[in-house]
Amino acid sequence: MKAGAPPLMRLDDLRKSYRLRRGLTDRLRGINRGVTAVDGVSLSIQRGGILGLVGESGCGKSTLAQLIVGLLEPTGGKILWDGANLKTLAGSARLEYRRGVQMVFQDTHSSLNPRKRIRTILTEALAARGLHKPDRAPRVATLLRQVGLDAQLLDRFPHELSGGQRQRVGIARALAMEPALLVADEPVSSLDVSLQGQIINLLRQLNEDLGLTIVLISHDLAVVARVCDSIAVMYAGRVVESGIPDQVLTTPRHPYTQALLDAVPRGLERRGRKRGVLPVEAGATQGGCHFRARCALAQSVCTEQDPALRPSGPNHDVACLMAL
Ligand SMILES: Nc1ncnc2c1ncn2[C@@H]1O[C@H](COP(=O)(O)OP(=O)(O)O)[C@@H](O)[C@H]1O
Ligand SMILES: [Mg+2]
Questions:
Q1: Per-residue pLDDT tens digits for 6-20
Q2: What is the spatial distance between Cα 249 and Cα 228, in angstroms, rounded to a whole number?
Q3: Whole-Å CA distances, 147 to 88, 115, 159, 313
Q4: What gap in Å lies between CA 140 and CA 143, rounded to an integer?
Q5: How does pLDDT run across 305-317, given as a tens digit for each residue?
Q6: Does the reported pTM lie above 0.85?
Q7: Which residues in 84-235 belong to E strands, given as ranges?
Q8: Domain residue limits, the chain
Q9: Which ligand is nearest to the CA of 53?
């Protein structure tokens, strides 16, 4: 990497709100209801690294993933791709970005066309990439090798494959575009635990062999802990803690990260006493820290001030007034 080169991608105070359908009373009263799924996320995605994005269901991970790959438009903030604002990208630069950022989905049933054979799925991706016809078959063979699939599977349909095999096809299809960045949104959540490790190892191997930058999204801290170079913990649309695994996993500073770690059964060291985290509260917390209603450490200042993500040590940021 060139010294001073911008990160592959930089998210700057990124926001996304969804408008909800209004009922009659809302319409008569002129009320617009919305949900802020991503609420001011700033993150750097470093070239050649694996960034783990963790947080419970509904915290905004998939929304963030779709913003990164351009499937959703942000309602605020900006995304810099190799230093350039996505909004200003046009023409071939925009196409390069769309090709260069690929996604792997959790649900392999709906992400692969059930009526197409694996060969067709991969060949079509290569055609979309602009690969000449004679080059496609050898490239399909290479892709299969890269994801550890047998060529015998090429004439099968997605439903004839196991969940793990389907996920490998999904990864191969993404690789067909020769992306610089792969966003894997809960790629192992639908798989048996025994298969999860294999897919995670495959992602690590692709990261090492191809220099592929990866954003690995999971609700399970244990899944990302093993392979990531950096970790961002999300809660209610925000990053509450981020840094290198050595910092975030061994000296977690945010009570929410501490709770996530306490929930990891084995393999990761638990630190300190059991931290108090109250059960999921109903409804959004207005003003102040989003986490305060569940936080045993919360003080009145947490109602008044909204904690920003601040350095709490080298390679370690935390958004908690009590942790600083
Ligand atoms: N298309 C949508 N329309 C309205 N609300 C949505 C939509 N997609 C997600 N949400 C809401 O946004 C929040 C974040 O969802 P999501 O990004 O899917 O989180 P995660 O992937 O972490 O489970 C949730 O409250 C969810 O209900
Ligand atoms: Mg999701």
A1: 899 999 999 999 987
A2: 11
A3: 35, 22, 18, 38
A4: 5
A5: 989 999 999 999 9
A6: yes
A7: 84-85, 101-104, 181-185, 213-218, 230-235
A8: 249-324
A9: 1
Q: Tokens for 201?
A: 């190892």
Residue 57 alpha carbon, nearest atom of ligand 1: 23
Please count the other Cβ atoms lying within 10 Å of the Cβ belonging to residue 320.
Answer: 24
CA-closest residue to ligand 1 atom 5:
18
Cα separation, 108 vs 187, in Å, equals: 9
Q: State in Å: Cα 154 to ligand 2 middle.
A: 29
Strand locations in 108-237 (E): 181-185, 213-218, 230-235
Whole-angstrom Cα distance, residue 266 to residue 222? Answer: 9
- The one-letter code for the residue type at 129 is R
- 110's enclosing H/E stretch is helix 108-111
As a whole number of angstroms, the distance between CA 63 and CA 259 comes to 23
- Specify the 3-state DSSP secondary structure of 286: coil
State how far the Cα of 224 lies from the Cα of 188, in Å rounded to an integer. Answer: 11
Of 17, 20, 32, 35, the one to substitute when testing ligand 1's pocket (max ligand atoms within 8 A of C-beta) is 35
Q: Which atom of ligand 1 is nearest to the CA of 66?
A: 17
Ligand 1 pocket at CB < 6 A: 18, 35, 37, 55, 57-63
Residues 6+ apart with CB under 8 A from 23: none
Asked if 278 and 263 touch (Cβ cutoff 8 Å), the reply is: no
Q: Is the model's pLDDT at 275 over the cut of 70?
A: no
CB 311 within 8 A of CB 317: yes
Given a cut of 70, whether residue 266 has pLDDT beyond it is: no
Report pLDDT digits (tens) over 210-226.
Answer: 999 999 999 999 888 88
Cα separation of the two ends of the chain: 33
